[in-house]
Amino acid sequence: MRAYFDDSLERLVSVVCDQLGETALAEGVVLRDTTGRLAFFSADSLTPEAVAQLTTALEEALGAYARTDRLVADKTEYGVASLLTDTTLITFKVSGHLIRMIDRRLVGADWLRRPSEQASPPPRFVFSSIKGGVGRSTALSVVAADLAARGLKVLVVDLDIEAPGLGAILLDDSTLPEFGLLDALVENGLAPLDETFLADMIGPSPLAGNHGRIDVMPVLGRRSLSNPADVLAKIARAYAEDINEQGEAISVLDQICALIDRFSDPRRYDVILVDARAGLHETTAGALLGLGAEVFLFGLDEPQTYQGFKILLSHIARLNGGIQQSGWFNRLTIVQGKAPADSELRQQFVEGCQNLMLGLGLAADRMASVDQPDALSSFDDLEWNDDLPDQAVLPAEEPTYLEPIAVLDDSRYKSFNPQARRDLIEKSLYSSSYQPLLDKVIASLPVYLD
To answer: What's the total number of domains in the chain?
Structure first.
C-alpha cells in the first residue's frame, strides 16, 4: 500500500523498532527533509549488513517518502554525530514509541520552537484566533481603552500583517506614525533600526482621553498608505529570514520578539497588547510561542473552531516539554467570542473545549497540582464551589480554572468604530459584554487595580 505523509512516520517507527529495537529508535534521530522524505540515523554503530537490511525494509515501507541520499546511517559516518545533538531536535511519541526528530522546513520553522517562558514586566497579552470575524481585535481595543481609563500606559502592537485593522480603529490621520511593523520587518534586513525609526513607528491614540495612554504600533504607517501600490511588495519581503553579520539566519519569530523587547521597558509601558494574525501563519507562531505572553485564544461554537484548536494544541503538546517547562498552557485562556446570552448555549462551547482538552491529554497539565491526575477521568470528578461558580476545587486543594470565558454578542459592536462612537469605549456600555475578559486581564497584572 502506498505511503502518504500522515502514515510515513509511523511506518518508519515500526520498521526501525522491528529491526533495531525500541531503545535504538529512541536514542537515534529521524530526519524529515523539506520534501517530507525520511531517514534514520543511529546513535550506535551498525554493521554494513544491518544498514543494508534496514535500508531495504524502509524503502519498501516508505516508498516515495524514503530519502534517496543516506536513508540509513550510523554514528561513525560523517556528519551524523552533529545531527544526534542538533539543537532543533524535538522529542515525542509515535504509536507509543519515543522518537527524536529533526524537521527541516522551507516555511513554518518557527512553529518548531518551544514556547518561551513568561516574559519579564511589562506583562504581555496576545489576542489570537484560528479564523477572523470572532471579535478579537474589537476585544483588544476595549481592553486597551479600559486599562487607559485606569491610568495605565498601554502599548498596542498589530501583528496581523495581511489584514491590519488596529491602526484604523485606534489612530486617526493626525496620529498615524510614519512607519509601521511592516516597514520594520523589511528595513531591519538591510540595516539596524535606530531609535529615530523606532519612535516613528508609534502613534498615540486619541481614544485614551485624559487618563492613561494608548500607544499604537500599526502594521501600516503613513508611508505605506501614501504608497499603497508598494504594500504587497513589502509583504512579500517581510517574512524573509534576516542574516546577521555572523551569517546566522534570524527568523520572523526572532525579529518580532526582538522588536517588542526594545519597547518592553516597564518605566515606559505598564501593559503590552498584541493582536496576532488569524490562522496558523509563521507570524502567529511568533505571537503565540515567542513572546512569553498571556494568550487569549478566541473562537466560536462551530466545527471550524474545534478543528483549528485541535491542530494548534496538538502541535504545541508535541513540542518536547514545551507546555510543562514553559508554563505556556497555564497562560492560555480560551475565549468564546460573540457568545449567546443564553447560558445553556454557552455551556455547549465550554463542554466542547473541555472534551477537546481531555482528548488531547492536556487537562492533566492544567491540573498539575493533583497528586494522582490519572484518577481524574473526566471533569465530572471535580468538586465545584457553589460560591465561586467559575472555580473548581481539586482533591489536592489548589483551585484550577478550567472553563473558557465568554464575550457576549452585542449588536452595537458589529461595526466597531470608536472614533465615530466614543460611547463604545465607555465602561457603562462595554462592561456587560467584556467584563469577564477585563477581570482576567486585571487579575494577571502585577498589582490589583481598583
So the answer is: 2
Query: Given 104, 129, 154, which residue is the final one in a domain?
Result: 104
How many whole angstroms separate alpha carbon 330 and alpha carbon 94?
Answer: 25
Q: Is 449 within the bounds of a domain?
A: no
Which of 63, 84, 104 represents a domain boundary (last residue)? 104
pTM: 0.84
At residue 305, the 3 state secondary structure works out as: helix
135 shares its domain with 77: no
Q: Does residue 421 lie within any of the structural domains?
A: yes
Measure the N-to-C terminal CA separation of the chain; round to a whole number of Å.
65
Pick the closest to residue 216 from 201, 226, 228 (CA basis): 201
What SS3 class is residue 391? Answer: coil
Mark whether 324 and 433 lie in a shared domain.
yes
Q: Are residues 122 and 237 in the same domain?
A: yes
Q: 25 lies in which domain range?
A: 5-104
Per residue of the chain (450 residues), what is the pLDDT tens digit?
Answer: 899 999 999 999 999 999 999 999 999 999 999 999 999 999 999 999 999 999 999 999 999 999 998 999 999 999 999 999 998 898 999 999 999 999 998 777 788 888 888 999 999 999 999 999 999 999 999 999 999 999 999 999 999 998 998 999 999 999 999 999 999 999 988 888 999 999 999 999 999 988 899 999 999 999 999 999 999 999 988 888 887 777 777 888 889 999 999 999 999 999 999 999 999 887 788 899 899 999 999 999 999 999 999 999 888 888 755 455 558 888 999 999 999 999 999 999 999 998 888 888 776 544 443 343 443 343 344 343 444 334 333 333 333 435 899 999 999 998 899 999 999 999 999 999 999 999 999 999 986 455
Domain identity same for 119 and 180: yes
